[in-house]
Specification:
alpha+beta; 3 helices; 28% strand; globular
Length: 116
């Protein structure tokens, strides 16, 4: 249902929202699922955010007008494996949880973002 793009500000070590038409927000890398992906460089699939204590609605639901049910989050990395940003997809449209196939597609998209 929605997708958010965050870049990491190298100076402040904060996540900066990069969604056209929306107010820019900044979040610490130690907050929410997005922050965890940004700080560890590891992808995360959350089937039910209500059962995951890493979920921070102020960060992870910030761009969505709807209640967040599930999340797929993947880092955007440089060629030297530094994390430059994070892509977050919320609420799989089928109502089911995101899958490993969805993660593979998102990883491909992240690689394309880096090339452009």
């Amino acid at each position: 249902e929605g997708c958010n793009l965050y870049l990491i500000d190298g100076g402040s070590k904060e996540l900066c929202s990069m969604n056209p038409g929306r107010e820019e927000k900044r979040f610490s890398l130690n907050r929410g699922i997005v922050g965890l992906v940004g700080s560890t460089g590891e992808s995360i699939i959350v089937a039910d955010v209500s059962k995951d204590n890493r979920y921070d609605p102020e960060v992870d639901q910030y761009q969505s007008e709807k209640s967040t049910r599930n999340i797929l989050c993947h880092p955007i990395k440089s060629e030297s494996d530094d994390v430059l940003g994070v892509i977050e997809v919320v609420n799989r449209s089928s109502g089911k949880s995101f899958t490993a196939s969805d993660l593979h597609i998102l990883a491909s998209l992240a690689a394309q973002i880096l090339e452009s």
